[in-house]
């Protein structure tokens, strides 16, 4: 596929010329409650999201239960500062037995349901649930073992590009394509949590589209919806945002997740941005044609006697547009009237004496 070829997933078409495809990422914001997970599904469906995405791993498939320093996050600015990786993923993972009821409920609510697998066993599991596409997370985008496994399913792939150089991405795209991945979307992603607008660099979106000749979107970790709206203006066809019911409830990713009302605003405003982009056009719309009458033209604004000269005092450019065009203003000043003219009369050539 190329950047301009649409990707069909279930009832949705992803690509240029189509409304942005909005993915609600639940991550671990279910806070280990299936009931809450299903509430999130309902909330994002009501908000208008097109897809619901999970993450499929266990603590053991994503890390090792080690106690040495390398298994701790020692960044004081991180949301997860001083967390042991194994403990963090134990808190954040979505039990695999929850996937089917969550997926079923999402599909019942009219959304596509899929996931990011973090190892090959997760791909096998998701294949058993017949997911329609796959997402590759930023920290896995150079795991060629995983990339090959996902690509060989033959299903569309969405891959985040965080924490990867251009060389990394070029190699990963080649691995995917060499293993039967035909439908690929790359997501511009800044893998900091939350990300700042200053580090988001949305101008990368059209460059990435041209560089790899694929559709491009945004995996957005900034607060609010401004970056997503701007991304659509730059050609993003997919938007991914973390979601939660209420940030105040806490959760591993809640601090940079959207609440349902914010997600609804994102869906509405990014669709407006898409529609507003339109095409290069200088043609007046039908409504604009009707508004032409409200443009300015030349009117007599003081009573003028036959033979009297037109002056800046008795001729002005005003609305509506029933008189002579303003381009003729300099031509008619100091010309004389052919007859008496009442104030409020639209000026036309029959009222002007040709010398």
Automatic annotation (TrEMBL):
Entries under SUPFAM superfamilies matching the protein: AFP III-like domain, Aldolase
Keywords, A to Z?
Transferase
Q: Which InterPro entries does the entry link to?
A: AFP_Neu5c_C_sf (IPR036732), Aldolase_TIM (IPR013785), PseI-like (IPR051690), PseI/NeuA/B-like_N (IPR013132), Pseudaminic_synth_PseI (IPR020030), SAF (IPR013974), SAF_AFP_Neu5Ac (IPR006190), SAF_PseI/NeuA/NeuB (IPR057736)
GO MF annotation, one: N-acylneuraminate-9-phosphate synthase activity
One GO BP: carbohydrate biosynthetic process
> EC number(s) per UniProt?
2.5.1.97
Kindly report, in one word, the top-level EC class recorded for this enzyme: transferase
PROSITE patterns linked: AFP_LIKE (PS50844)
Q: Which Pfam families match?
A: NeuB, SAF
Q: Where is the AFP-like domain?
A: 297-355
Alphabetical list of PANTHER family matching this protein? N-ACETYLNEURAMINATE SYNTHASE, PSEUDAMINIC ACID SYNTHASE
Protein known as:
Pseudaminic acid synthase
């Amino acid at each position: 596929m190329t950047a301009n070829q649409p990707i069909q997933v279930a009832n949705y078409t992803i690509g240029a010329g189509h409304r942005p495809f909005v993915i609600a990422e639940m991550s671990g914001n279910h806070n280990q409650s299936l009931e809450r997970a299903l509430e999130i599904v309902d909330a994002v469906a009501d908000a208008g999201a097109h897809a619901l995405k999970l993450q499929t791993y266990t603590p053991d498939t994503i890390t090792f239960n080690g106690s040495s320093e390398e298994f701790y996050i020692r960044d004081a600015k991180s949301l997860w500062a001083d967390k042991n990786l194994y403990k963090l993923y134990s808190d954040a993972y979505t039990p695999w037995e929850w996937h089917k009821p969550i997926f079923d409920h999402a599909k019942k609510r009219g959304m596509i349901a899929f996931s990011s697998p973090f190892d090959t066993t997760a791909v096998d599991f998701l294949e058993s649930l017949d997911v329609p596409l796959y997402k590759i997370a930023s920290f896995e985008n150079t795991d060629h073992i995983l990339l090959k496994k996902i690509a060989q399913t033959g299903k569309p792939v969405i891959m985040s590009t965080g924490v990867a150089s251009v060389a990394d991405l070029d190699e990963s795209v080649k691995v995917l394509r060499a293993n039967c991945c035909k439908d690929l979307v790359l997501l511009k992603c800044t893998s900091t949590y939350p990300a700042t607008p200053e580090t988001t660099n949305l101008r990368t979106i059209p460059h990435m589209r041209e560089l790899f000749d694929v559709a491009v979107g945004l995996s957005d970790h900034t607060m609010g919806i401004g970056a997503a709206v701007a991304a659509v203006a730059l050609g993003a066809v997919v938007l991914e945002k973390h979601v939660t019911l209420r940030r105040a409830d806490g959760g591993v990713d809640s601090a940079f997740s959207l609440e349902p009302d914010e997600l609804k605003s994102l869906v509405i405003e990014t669709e407006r941005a898409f529609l507003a982009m339109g095409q290069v056009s200088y043609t007046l719309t039908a409504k604009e044609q009707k508004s032409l009458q409200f443009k300015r033209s030349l009117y007599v604004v003081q009573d003028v006697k036959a033979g009297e000269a037109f002056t800046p005092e008795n001729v002005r450019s005003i609305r509506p547009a029933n008189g002579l065009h303003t381009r003729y203003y300099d031509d008619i000043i100091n010309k004389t009237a052919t007859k008496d003219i009442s104030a409020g009369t639209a000026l036309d050539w029959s009222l002007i004496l040709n010398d």
